[in-house]
Amino acid sequence: MRAFSFERASEPAQAAARAAEVPGAKFIAGGTNLLDLMKLEIETPVHLIDVSATGLDRISSTAGGGLRIGAMVTNTDLAADATVRRDYGVLTRALMAGASGQLRNKATTAGNLLQRTRCPYFYDTAMPCNKRVPGAGCAALGKGAFSRQLGIIGTSDTCIATHPSDMAVALRVLDAEVETTTPSGASRTIPLDEFYRLPGDTPEIETALMPGEIITAVTLPPPIGGRQSYHKVRDRASYAFALVSVALIEREDGTGRVALGGVAPEPWRRPQAEAALPDGANAVMSRLLDGATPTEENAFKITLAERTLAAMLAEG
Amino acid sequence: MSPPIRFEMRRRTFLVGSASAIVAANIPWRANAQPTSLVGPDNSTVTLVVNGEARGLAIDNRTTLLDALREHLHLTGTKKGCDHGQCGACTVSVNGERINSCLSLAVMHEGDEVTTIEGLGTPQQLDPMQQAFVDHDGFQCGYCTPGQICSAKAVLQEIRDNVPSHVTRDLTATIEASDEEIRERMSGNICRCGAYANILEAIHQASGAQV
């Protein structure tokens, strides 16, 4: 790990201003992903701003009947919250499908959104990675590369990494929005469907956040009801990243919402695919994964996604 | 509390010490080797409350809570396995919640109450969870055991607090300490010897003892 200087921020605007002012500074909250990457020198901040005590650790109701989740609310506290369990069950299900008990006690809402990909070539500093070193090339696209875990849609010829979050997939079907504070102290709201950037030619740019901008909360609209579920398929029963995951909200009339994890650089949802829900899993997935460009190793994810959704619909 | 471990000068310690002395001799002054872009010192002071005792530390900012416990406070019960949050050997309790101490900076724990395996019981009076691991042979090599025990105690508390898990079917019902719930909640603690069946029995015994 490289040496760094350290400071504690007491409020978000101060943290954002400092982050914009100090080159090479990064925020740290739970630290479960950042420290892992710093040990491998994939992340090399020269200055850390501890934002864990910025008063953003509360869950509260919004004036419109929705929920405001502070950026520093831990994954455990969010999953265990009585309102979330009752009204936004898909979010509790997704959170509990991710990581381990120890990690969920430290990992925060904002940190979960901003975690980096677990692509093995992003992690292996001996291999080229356009996300880690722009322009270096992508080892995952090389002949014989291990791409089983990697993306099948929304990817580009510079990067086929997936976004690893389960929580973000649930937030996507719940139409969540991300609230931020900019270095100038202004607030802004970014719908989650505009928050992540597809890799294109710049896989190193992952979100719509500007330098120094800090996430202060995630907001949810009023509960939409329906039967909410999250099904994650992985190589072992617990504590592994998704091969494919499906977040589903089904209403009694057969309409609903679907988003996928484990297949794309962002939680993958397309409204035109959801319209086909009354026609079944094949109809949904043929639209949702239309244009997919899987590798030979991960083409199975298309079938797996369809069968996972079919199983979930059959349970209803 | 266990008696403090006395560190003796061993051959390995001596050689490492000598090597760093030689390297240091070639650097006029360590601070000069730091990049100028740091905006403050690369070290800090922090006070942790470890097993009920306030312990002040002057540390490099990079020091993890795990390294602070092991290398600075010489509480070597907490183990370093993978050092990347994957194995759970470093699990300790901080302010009543289990965390991976390897993925947390010590400097971010000012005033925090840290409980390690040394703070749970004594050889004469074991914690019920420690006794249960002994009774059920919940280990072979024992390296993962301090993390397993710290994690297991927190798992039972999380179930009592009705924190849901991936295998909880009804999110609004009272959660039972079933085999399935315990296995799922312990998935962040790896045992390379494969003592899982006995660990599960041990946790059940401790769960019964606490009711």
Automatic annotation (TrEMBL), chain A:
Q: What is this protein called?
A: Molybdopterin dehydrogenase
Please name one Pfam family that this protein belongs to: FAD_binding_5
Is the keyword Flavoprotein assigned to this protein? yes
Q: Which GO terms describe its molecular function?
A: FAD binding; oxidoreductase activity
Q: Which domain of life is it from?
A: Bacteria
Alphabetized PROSITE patterns for the sequence: FAD_PCMH
Please indicate if the UniProt record lists Flavoprotein as a keyword: yes
Keyword set, alphabetical order:
FAD, Flavoprotein
Show where the FAD-binding PCMH-type domain sits: 1-225
TrEMBL record, chain B:
Listed under GO cellular component are: periplasmic space
Q: Does the keyword Iron-sulfur apply?
A: yes
Q: Which GO terms describe its molecular function?
A: 2 iron, 2 sulfur cluster binding; metal ion binding; oxidoreductase activity, acting on the aldehyde or oxo group of donors
Q: Does the UniProt entry include the keyword Flavoprotein?
A: no
* Keywords from the named record: 2Fe-2S, Iron, Iron-sulfur, Metal-binding, Oxidoreductase
> Which residue numbers delimit the 2Fe-2S ferredoxin-type domain?
44-120
Q: Which CDD domains match?
A: fer2 (cd00207)
Q: Under what name is this protein listed?
A: Aldehyde dehydrogenase iron-sulfur subunit
Organism expressing this protein natively: Salinicola socius
Q: What is the lineage of its organism?
A: Bacteria, Pseudomonadati, Pseudomonadota, Gammaproteobacteria, Oceanospirillales
